[in-house]
Amino acid sequence: MKIWQRYLKRQRALFRTQYQSPKQLFDSACEMLIKCFAVCGGERMKPGYTRRNPRLIFLVTDLILYLFVNLYSIAIVWGSLMDVVFCFVTLGIAIQGLAKIEAFTCPELNDLHLYNVARFTMPPRFPEVEEALFHTAAMCKVFIRILAVAFSIVGIAIYSYAILMPLVEGELSLAFGFYLPFIDYRTPIGFAINWVYQFIQVSEGCIGLMACDTCLLFLIVNATGQMDLIIIYLRRLTELIDSNDAGQNDKKIADLLGDIVIKHLEHTKYVTDMDKLLKKQFFINFSCIIFELVASLAIVVRVWNQFLTVNFNFLTRAITPSNSFLGTQEWPFNDKLVEEIYNVNWYGLSTKHQKTLQQVLLTSQHPVVLSDGFSAIDLYNFVEIYKKIYSYLMVLQNIS
């Protein structure tokens, strides 16, 4: 944690020399994200965007073809448990891809983005606000760079495996189990066509997943940044109350309390809209992931020595904890917000203002959280699910 804090401190100091304002830094991070989405035709945050662009049409057509290819592969390998499960895993990836396209190309996503941009264009009311905005923008910039490096490493590793596999085995063999129907991959031309097809799938998958995960991260970082501003306003409110001996700050207190209410209402609407936007995507993704994990257990029970198969399936599910981790990040900030409301000098407020602040407190104690429609998206639920799956795995292993 200390290493991470030192790294962030160095990056913020570097960004201070490169960008004159938080808006410039945030715009720079958003430009990088838009370029990632543009590869797949999903740059919804770009002005004048339409879903009817050739890149997105190609991607959707490719995913639909990918679904049929996997169904064809299931029909071909039916009877071989491991091969069928592998086809189900890759089939789930296509379904998840279509769900992400629907969610991250919605007009509602652009509305959330425009609200975030507007926050950076407003003149800061206090000096601390400018620093908080810069911190939010810096976090976005740092995270997109980290994810770019991480997904690049994954892509290079997969490409290396796809290139080295036929060389090591000394025969024409594809890295993945799916291939185009009626094109024999055992012939040089058929192998080249199928290899390029798999190369395209990996490229689209890595870039698309990076763009979607980064966009989700941007949304959550900005949500926590909104709470940072409310906390700053609450601290300033306490200072005004403590120095209001003769009632000279009554108007300032009323204005600031009104701003706190407005900002908290905006934050609640922001998180609610984000939850509505991502709820179906989370449900479909997690349903596919859980189904694939359960299917993997069948291999463990019947073919326990195929440990690599199970490891592969678990590794491909890395997106689950990442999404759960991002959802969990809102909790500490909300607890901090509630604590800061309690720290306000309530006795220095009028009865009317106390009731107003009480409503903010009650709303903060029951915050809107990201969900899949049934339960919150957080690490706690994620860990509980994996504990149950692991216990089932151990029971099945003992029985077998």
From TrEMBL:
Domain of life: Eukaryota
Membrane topology: Multi-pass membrane protein
GO biological process, one term: signal transduction
Signal peptide: none
GO molecular function: odorant binding; olfactory receptor activity
GO cellular component: plasma membrane
Localization in the cell: Cell membrane
Alphabetical UniProt keywords: Cell membrane, Membrane, Olfaction, Receptor, Sensory transduction, Transducer, Transmembrane, Transmembrane helix
PANTHER family in alphabetical order: ODORANT RECEPTOR, ODORANT RECEPTOR 19A-RELATED
Name of protein: Uncharacterized protein
Lineage of source species: Eukaryota, Metazoa, Ecdysozoa, Arthropoda, Hexapoda
